[in-house]
């Protein structure tokens, strides 16, 4: 792993953690942090950390918080995540 790739991953991690941290206080700021993290991902082509991958809506570019900005359902072999802002549905096999 190259230095920049490592750094990019670290920054994404930090931004997403902050987004989580401040969501209740300032949701707009947390969406901004998530967008920044996503931009780093696009620019550097690193993979979004698994933990955070499902926490960002690619369509309307917001930070997804279960029961607040998204709904998460589990069925047989899939996790279904619905963005409550734009209605985008993401299905992830377990
Ligand atoms: Zn959305």
TrEMBL record:
<comment type="similarity">
    <text>Belongs to the eukaryotic/archaeal RNase P protein component 4 family.</text>
</comment>
<keyword id="KW-0378">Hydrolase</keyword>
<dbReference type="GO" id="GO:0004526">
    <property type="term" value="F:ribonuclease P activity"/>
</dbReference>
<dbReference type="Pfam" id="PF04032">
    <property type="entry name" value="Rpr2"/>
</dbReference>
<feature type="binding site">
    <location>
        <position position="83"/>
    </location>
    <ligand>
        <name>Zn(2+)</name>
    </ligand>
</feature>
<dbReference type="InterPro" id="IPR007175">
    <property type="entry name" value="Rpr2/Snm1/Rpp21"/>
</dbReference>
<keyword id="KW-0255">Endonuclease</keyword>
<feature type="binding site">
    <location>
        <position position="60"/>
    </location>
    <ligand>
        <name>Zn(2+)</name>
    </ligand>
</feature>
<comment type="function">
    <text>Part of ribonuclease P, a protein complex that generates mature tRNA molecules by cleaving their 5'-ends.</text>
</comment>
<keyword id="KW-0819">tRNA processing</keyword>
<dbReference type="GO" id="GO:0001682">
    <property type="term" value="P:tRNA 5'-leader removal"/>
</dbReference>
<dbReference type="InterPro" id="IPR016432">
    <property type="entry name" value="RNP4"/>
</dbReference>
<feature type="binding site">
    <location>
        <position position="86"/>
    </location>
    <ligand>
        <name>Zn(2+)</name>
    </ligand>
</feature>
<keyword id="KW-0479">Metal-binding</keyword>
<keyword id="KW-0862">Zinc</keyword>
<dbReference type="GO" id="GO:0030677">
    <property type="term" value="C:ribonuclease P complex"/>
</dbReference>
<keyword id="KW-0963">Cytoplasm</keyword>
<protein>
    <recommendedName>
        <fullName>Ribonuclease P protein component 4</fullName>
        <ecNumber>3.1.26.5</ecNumber>
    </recommendedName>
</protein>
<dbReference type="GO" id="GO:0005737">
    <property type="term" value="C:cytoplasm"/>
</dbReference>
<keyword id="KW-0540">Nuclease</keyword>
<feature type="binding site">
    <location>
        <position position="57"/>
    </location>
    <ligand>
        <name>Zn(2+)</name>
    </ligand>
</feature>
<dbReference type="GO" id="GO:0008270">
    <property type="term" value="F:zinc ion binding"/>
</dbReference>
<comment type="subunit">
    <text>Consists of a catalytic RNA component and at least 4-5 protein subunits.</text>
</comment>
């Amino acid at each position: 792993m190259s230095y920049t790739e490592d750094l990019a991953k670290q920054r994404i991690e930090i931004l997403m953690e902050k987004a989580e941290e401040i969501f209740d206080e300032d949701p707009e700021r947390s969406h901004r942090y998530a967008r920044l993290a996503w931009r780093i991902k696009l620019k550097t082509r690193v993979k979004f950390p698994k933990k955070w991958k499902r926490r960002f809506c690619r369509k309307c570019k917001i930070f997804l918080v279960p029961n607040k900005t998204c709904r998460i359902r589990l069925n047989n072999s899939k996790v279904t995540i619905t963005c409550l802002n734009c209605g985008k549905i993401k299905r992830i096999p377990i």
